Amino acid sequence: MRIVVTSTLVPGTLLGKPIYNEQGKILVNANVPLTVMMINRLHKLGISYVFIHDPLSDGLELDSTISDELRIESTKKIEDAFVKFKNEELHLRWLSLEKSAPQLKGIIESLLKELRNNNDMLSLLTDVFSYDEYIFTHSLNVTMYSLAIGTKLGLNKSQLDLLGLGALLHDVGKMVVPIQILDKPERLTEEEYELIKKHTTAGYEILREVPNIHSVVAICALQHHERINGSGYPKGISGEEMHLYSKIIAISDVFDAVTSNRVYRKAMLPHEGLELLYSGSHKLFDAKLVRLFRDSLSIYPTGLTVKLNDGRRGIVARQNAASSDRPIIRIIEENGYEVSIPYEVNLFDDLHLLITECDTTLKQRVFQ
HD-GYP domain: from which residue to which, for each copy (predicted)? Predict the structure, then answer.
């Protein structure tokens, strides 16, 4: 299978992976030739890239950090907890979270188990989802990213449990923000932006009242939009004033935000999201934590078409656990022509080779 941008799809293309919604329902199925109507539906769903079948990528096994079942089950549990919280009377919202805490902590246990059982790097591109309620899936992804960073950092089990819960609930304050503002496709007004910014303090005030949730979890909700140079909100704190878990969640939060499909922005691919984080290292984000995140992530996911510095093009075939930015490439083109028999090169073994470009356009000639 190969990753391509949805805008380049042509009728007759075989979708490699189905498109799901948050409830696990298949919206567009795989393994049938795409029609113009189906391609238009993908556009309407806001899907910016998909996996396709083509002869050049036959046999490639896609990475999977968490199973479909765990992703769907966890998202449903998060939605259930957040909706109950939102529908509760204001003075009883803390009680709603107290009742949901065991279920949410169970999600952390399941995610940590998956991370321990999966020695490969994080790859959340394996399945393409259409998200009607972004906050629930965002909370799950941020938790997975944060746990990966915390594991690389060497945090112990109790620390990872706290970090995970802080990540899972970092955006709970957004449940008090009108959905029309959260999903507004146009530029926010100054008043709307100020209202959204209040989700940090709203989450903090509620979480600190929950008896069976550690106070650090409330700190994560409060500080995840702070930046190490003091340019964040709500307090404008900097450096060591930020809790370690808040620094981790800040990185995970931004990365997932820019690599997710949103009504007002197309999703970036992982290497583009990492470039954004690196541009903010030492200024906005802790540089050491950004490096640990890079080492945890499949920067160039399996199925992505890339161009090398010697002009050859190929498809990422497998990952190298020892080096997240030097995968194994299936070469499909030399000197502008398709090779008769694709072959593999290992970028970890040949340090002279570098990835210079990523190509997610669909070459129509593949299907002719």
Answer: 113-309
Predicted confidence (pLDDT) per residue in 334-349, tens digit:
988 999 999 999 999 9
Taking alpha carbons only, the member of 98, 215, 219, 239 closest to residue 170 is 219
In the CATH scheme, what is the code of domain 68-296? 1.10.3210.10
The count of residues in the chain is 368
- Burial tier of 361 (Cβ tally within 10 Å: 0-12, 13-18, 19+): exposed
Torsion angle (degrees, nearest 10) of CA 291, 297, 302, 305: -40
- Phi and psi angles of residue 285, each rounded to the nearest 5 degrees, phi first: -125, 155
Judge whether residue 180 has pLDDT over 50: yes
Q: Are strands 49-53 and 2-5 parallel, antiparallel or unpaired?
A: antiparallel
Cα 99 to Cα 210: distance, rounded to the nearest angstrom: 10
Identity of the amino acid at 172: V
| Spatial distance between the Cα atoms of 29 and 357, rounded to a whole number of angstroms | 30
Rounded CA separation 32/125 (Å): 21
Sheet of 128-129, strand order: 26-28, 19-20, 128-129
Domain ranges of the chain: 2-63+300-367, 68-296
Task: Average the pLDDT over 199-225 and give the result.
Answer: 95
Nearest to 27 by CA among 41, 15, 14, 11: 41
DSSP sequence for 62-108: PP-SS-HHHHHHHHHHHHHHHHHHHHS-GGGHHHHHHHHHHHHHHHH
**pTM listed for this prediction:** 0.83
